[in-house]
Task: inverse folding
């Protein structure tokens, strides 16, 4: 027990004695009525009573000491906790604060008490804090927010605030708020975000490079191989015309057949690399062509509709939408077990929307993003491609009821 | 009577080859050549030859645009488009621009002379391969209709109204008959209210309904909902 406590203890017992004597004085009248013969009995009673009282007093004293120890332990824990704790009343005034809170805010504890906590919140985050506080008192449910805290030394840091509702003195509602420094975490998050952005831009760059490469190879195939094959074909025909009846005719004809087959291979290769109509006739034509090929290859019926499509939607968007449609159709062929696909392309200025839906088995909700084979990646790639042109990709699926993929891009 | 021919192709060796081949015929005379589209239009509009053979893919101005301009300036000049592409769209674009003939490059050696003669006579010439493909397709279409008389997908009139709707349109029809507003539907399926309205009006068009009541009537007929 501290010295201070001993003094107040002594003062309290003097006080109690004084009050007891006053009461006794009032009761003197009653005592006069007691007969002398009863005195030994009364004295005995009084002595027993006195011992009882002393025992009770001792007990009280011990409890008080224990309480004091618990209180000190509580304060140690409270003050030295690794997070800052403050109690705030409904008006936002700090009622209590632990030492960690004081250290976080770089303020003396005495300078925190009776101050509004908002004084320590960074200007731009005042609304966040205000809402946090308001919701806690309205809903009395746990609240969580992130704000920047202004330190006493004018610097600031990112903090997480978690508040729970409690009852303070006089049963008034208070907020018990934990404040923790999340600067490091925020930094890591930002780094992660930056890496993600870098990765996205790299992926976008790879897509562009791939597309450019394909364009170049296609041009090469067309300008060199294709053209030269045509010339050889023409020249062989000239030869054939100029030597009628020659025994070389059958050799020339064999060569002509080979040239025709080679030209067909080159053309197929070109179409695989780069949709032949996209650059010259636009997305609608390229889609019509692809859909026809798709039906011929897979046997899946396709209904395609194009509404209000402006030719000037830009080659980057056209190209991306074509590749997404290709990916989506291939996903349908591989996984959906569908018999019919609908491809809808429409313009609702400034939005271009591509919808690809099927009557297949739908995506299993159990393994929505698992990258098994190419399926999972298909969805990821479609989303990434859509985002590259500032668009979005939305997949809706009900097991047994098909899948609807919607891609929206803004011009 | 000789046929005057002009060649437009950016590939010099190909032009040479074509020229030799065409001139194995006494009545065909190559009177000019160009290596790009702009030059081709410039020269052809001055000399108005009987036939122009033009490559579909050329620098400066592509073969389709060249065809259009030549046909505008010299309506009597016949144009044969030479192309590596066999897609419907390319053929359609060429014919739409006014081309009289369409010859695939792999068949140029065998067919170009016939093409020049045919268009010069005022008839259309399509590469044999394309004609055969069309015949095949027509055969297949007939066979499909014979095999599955009810499955005539290619004509919208023969489809049932519901078959004409895409899954998205059906989904929106379902919500409309359930009494949901456009903004409620937009919330559910994560599209804008404007988009939902577009779908609604397209639905009405496809099903021949004038308003929501009409849509609901049709939905009841189709068994999509019941009167409650």
Result:
């Amino acid at each position: 027990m501290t010295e201070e406590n001993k003094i107040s203890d002594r003062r309290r017992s003097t006080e109690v004695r004084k009050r007891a004597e006053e009461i006794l004085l009032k009761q003197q009248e009653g005592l006069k009525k007691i007969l002398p013969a009863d005195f030994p009995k009364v004295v005995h009673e009084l002595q027993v009573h006195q011992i009882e009282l002393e025992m009770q007093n001792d007990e009280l004293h011990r409890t008080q000491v224990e309480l004091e120890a618990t209180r000190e332990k509580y304060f140690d824990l409270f003050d030295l906790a690794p997070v800052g704790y403050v109690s705030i009343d409904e008006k936002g005034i700090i009622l209590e604060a632990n030492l960690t809170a004081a250290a976080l805010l770089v303020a003396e504890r005495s300078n925190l008490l009776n101050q509004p906590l908002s004084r320590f919140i960074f200007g731009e985050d005042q609304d966040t804090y205000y809402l946090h506080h308001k919701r806690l008192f309205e809903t009395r449910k746990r609240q969580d927010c992130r704000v920047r805290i202004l330190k006493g030394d004018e610097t600031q840091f990112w903090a997480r605030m978690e508040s729970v509702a409690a009852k303070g003195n006089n049963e008034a509602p208070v907020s018990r708020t934990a404040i923790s420094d999340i600067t490091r975490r925020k930094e890591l998050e930002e780094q992660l975000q930056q890496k993600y952005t870098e990765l996205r831009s790299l992926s976008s760059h790879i897509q562009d490079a791939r597309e450019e490469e394909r364009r170049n190879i296609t041009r090469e195939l067309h300008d060199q191989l294709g053209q030269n094959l045509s010339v050889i074909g023409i020249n062989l025909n000239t030869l054939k015309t100029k030597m009628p009846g020659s025994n070389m005719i059958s050799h020339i004809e064999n060569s002509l057949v080979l040239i025709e087959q080679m030209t067909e291979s080159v053309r197929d290769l070109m179409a695989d690399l780069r949709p032949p109509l996209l650059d010259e006739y636009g997305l609608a034509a390229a889609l019509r062509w692809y859909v026809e090929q798709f039906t011929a290859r897979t046997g899946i019926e396709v209904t395609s509709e194009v509404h209000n499509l402006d030719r000037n939607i830009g080659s980057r968007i056209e190209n991306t939408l074509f590749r997404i449609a290709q990916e989506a159709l291939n996903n349908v062929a591989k996984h959906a077990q569908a018999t019919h696909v609908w491809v809808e392309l429409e313009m609702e200025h400034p939005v271009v929307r591509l919808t690809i839906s099927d009557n297949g088995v739908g995506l299993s909700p159990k393994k929505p993003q698992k990258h098994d084979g190419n399926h999972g990646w298909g969805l990821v790639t479609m989303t990434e491609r859509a985002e590259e042109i500032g668009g979005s990709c939305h997949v809706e699926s009900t097991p047994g009821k098909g899948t609807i993929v919607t891609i929206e891009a803004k011009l | 009577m000789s046929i005057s021919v002009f060649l437009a192709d950016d590939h010099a060796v190909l032009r040479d080859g074509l020229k030799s081949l065409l001139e194995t015929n006494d009545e065909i005379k190559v009177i000019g050549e160009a290596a790009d589209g702009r030059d081709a239009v410039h020269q052809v509009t001055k000399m108005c030859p009987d036939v122009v053979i033009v490559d579909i893919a050329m620098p400066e101005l592509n073969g389709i645009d060249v065809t259009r301009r030549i046909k505008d300036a010299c309506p009597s000049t016949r144009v044969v488009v030479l192309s590596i592409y066999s897609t419907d769209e390319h053929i359609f674009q060429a014919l739409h621009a006014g081309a009289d003939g369409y010859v695939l490059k792999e068949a140029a050696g065998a067919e170009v002379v016939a093409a020049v003669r045919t268009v010069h006579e005022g008839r259309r010439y399509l590469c044999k391969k394309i004609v055969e493909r069309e015949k095949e397709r027509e055969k297949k279409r007939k066979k499909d209709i014979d095999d599955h008389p009810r499955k005539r997908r290619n004509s919208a009139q023969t489809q049932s109204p519901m078959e004409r709707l895409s899954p998205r349109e059906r989904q929106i029809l379902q919500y409309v008959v359930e009494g949901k507003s456009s903004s409620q539907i937009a919330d559910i399926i994560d599209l804008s209210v404007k988009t939902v309205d577009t779908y609604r009006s397209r639905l009405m068009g496809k099903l021949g309904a004038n308003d929501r009541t009409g849509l609901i009537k049709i939905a009841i007929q189709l068994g999509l909902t019941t009167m409650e």
In short: Residues 34-78 of chain A form one domain.
